[in-house]
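Entry, Tuesday afternoon. Goal for today is a structural model of the target with zinc ion bound, before we commit to ordering more compound. Inputs were pasted exactly as handed over by J.K., no edits. I checked the ligand SMILES twice against the vendor sheet because last time a stereocentre got dropped in transcription.
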Amino acid sequence: MPIGDHVVYSPRSWADIGPHVFPMEKYAGVYRRLEEEDGLAGSLVPEPPADEELLRVHSPAYLADLADGHHTPRTVASELPLTGEIADFFRLACSGSALAARTALERGWAAHLGGGFHHAFREKAEGFCYLNDLAVAARAVQADGSAERVTVIDLDVHQGNGTAAIFRGDSSVYTFSLHQEDNYPVKERSDRDIGLVSFDPSRPGTAWVDDALYLETLDAALAEVLEESRPDLVLYQAGADPYERDQLGGFRLTLDGLRRRDESVYRACRQRGVPVAATFGGGYAIDVADTIAIHLETVRAARRVLGGAA
Ligand SMILES: [Zn+2]
């Protein structure tokens, strides 16, 4: 199956957010490299979502705030401007992740060149996230009847606080977050949280979470999480910000370590026959090309481990 049958991308995945640490150009950047280097010829293109899809997660009042296009107490913690274009960007991210989830259930895996906006709550924006596409995707496949149990594996350097809060007390969606404890955000409780501190407590100022420590921690946790949650689908938030040259993270993973991280997730899913849909999440490398390279490898690793010919 061509790689384009697994890749979800819209050329409209961009919005003007002004001067900002969030690199909007990364989505088109990954797409272009897949075209030039990996034989990608067209992708699955999401359409803007029906309100019904968003209302499974977000409140009508909050969606009305977004539609009005001016900040309210519910939207202001986004740390982003709020325009119609920006609201549309986040709506499209939701349908993109829902399309990726549906595609994964049909074809074994999918990668959304977008999404992973895990800091958005039911009725509150936070941390560059207005709408929680992971939650919308989980609810979409549940509403379809194509998956009952969904597990979110969130490996962004920041905790998936919005996702955790949305699914708190809901046994049909299991949330797992491996993140930097001494960093944004204020933590919510996921079904499984592993918060690693970024420094060696016995040697303040020294880097601590390197490839070896991270991957050892992850591999042990993945086996337990999948055994405990027994999902029909995994939604993978493959944040690029555990990278050693990230501006907003304190981990010290190398490009190679991040590639092995992705492979670990996919292998664990493959061993249990669980389809997986990947989303990008954060990524604030000093050099945007590094963020693009990390996300690109998340797609390539899926193809390597989970299949798909040129
Ligand atoms: Zn992040």
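Residues 156-158, 239, 241, 281-282 surround zinc ion (CB under 6 Å).
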